[in-house]
Amino acid sequence: MQIIEQPRQHISFSEAYTFSKCPYNHYTQYVLKQRSEETIYTKFGTLMGRAIEDKKKNLHEDAWKEFENKLCEWIDANPHIIREGKAPELIDKDEWIEAGRKIYNEVFVFLDKEFPGYQVLEFEFPIYEDVPEHHLKFKGYVDFIIKHEDKIWILDFKTTKKMWDAETLSDTEKLYQVTLYKKFFCDMFEIDPKDVETAYLLLKRAPWKDEPIIEIVKTTSGKVKMNNCIEWLKEQSEGIQAGIRVKKTNTCKFCSCGSAPKWSPKKKSWGKK
Fold first, then answer.
1. pTM of structure
2. 69: Cα within 13 Å, side-chain hemisphere
3. In 3D, which of 87, 92, 74 has the Cα closest to residue 38?
4. C-beta atoms surrounding 170 within 10 Å
């Protein structure tokens, strides 16, 4: 079957990052549309972000209950975790609900302590701006924008099991996300980048015993880094437009380029990928 690629209008950070790690994986996900179905991890993160926004922005006192009900509904309809190379695992509903409850209760306390007296400016702020020297638009949504003292903070929520490991923290491209948000946000409103800070807010489902449930990872986002981010974004945009589909097997663990064995539900065994 011939795949007819449609003219592209925009690019997101996640798409650019996927392409940078493996163009062929990008091709299977964004051209062939063979993307992974929604998982408990992505659903949990989406619902948690929505609950935090509903409570803080809309002052909705039942935001937690809404989170709990929606997550229970999803788990009832999707009771298993299915991962490449592993047998299906039954989701422990109580465990996930309790993890959500701890994050929800702790995140507002953390924000008040880290940014006392902060002002909420935006939740899920949309960005749809031109990629410099390219016809594509950059599309994204900034989770949380606040003002604290004389600084504006661009915060991105990341739900995770525990603290980020050294590999994640050293992945320069992965950390480009909030810097790109800052670059476009400042351009949109003609704000001096020196007045804007960036960080990731880690919301941990199962932290170690002495590890905090909420942790902030502040990132540098000066002029040089913002320029590097834009050049990186332009490079990925041009590669995608050129139709590059090279397999980078050294960066693929569980995508179609990798070598991990695949679990067969019918045979109930592992086979070759």
1. 0.87
2. 6
3. 74
4. 10
